[in-house]
């Protein structure tokens, strides 16, 4: 520090306005990230190394009282990082996917037995009267617990893998489906609606499987398969009997008749998805029971 000579006039220190200070700090952080980010880094590597550093840096600045206003939200930080990586040609502008940072922090803050979204599954499952591990199984099957996946009019979006057309039926836009809370709420409402369509099915187990199948391919196709099964002498109220006809619904001799209103569909895919989700749900149920036993 320079010594002040005798008689020298000392000017008061001019402090930057809070808004200017906030802008300056943000710009400095962004410049550091740009310098360290290059094409040779994979997106996940960049976020694991620099994204968390950025978030922690902003938190420390806030603790030190350098921010006059609350620090940017995690969503704002993620958007800023997305913009940088798109600029560096690491991400495509049409499909940015920077949920690594947000997921890692969410898991630390609200870690559950199955995922960081257990509290959402529990809340919505209670609302519709389902076991919450079914919602968890759907989420893993559809997105591997990644809330920002998917895009396009014909592509499932978000944590629960919901089509934009389905979202519109519940008054939800495609962009809103990327919000985990909204996605789980819509998915639960879908399951509830599908289960009610099969209220005439006597056993809860069969109703759940019919509802899961409807979630995968649409209830219209499942009702078609039930009618075809009944025509061929099978019990349309029993999943195991209808399942064999779902598998055949891409064959002309089964979908080209007056009982079928919604045409052919990939029944093998539907049955496999239902089987995978159901098996995962049972596994989660055991995992949850084990976790409760340890407490």
From TrEMBL:
Pfam families in alphabetical order: SLT (PF01464)
Signal sequence residues: none
Segments forming domain Transglycosylase SLT: 120-233
Domain of life: Bacteria
Protein name per UniProt: Transglycosylase SLT domain protein
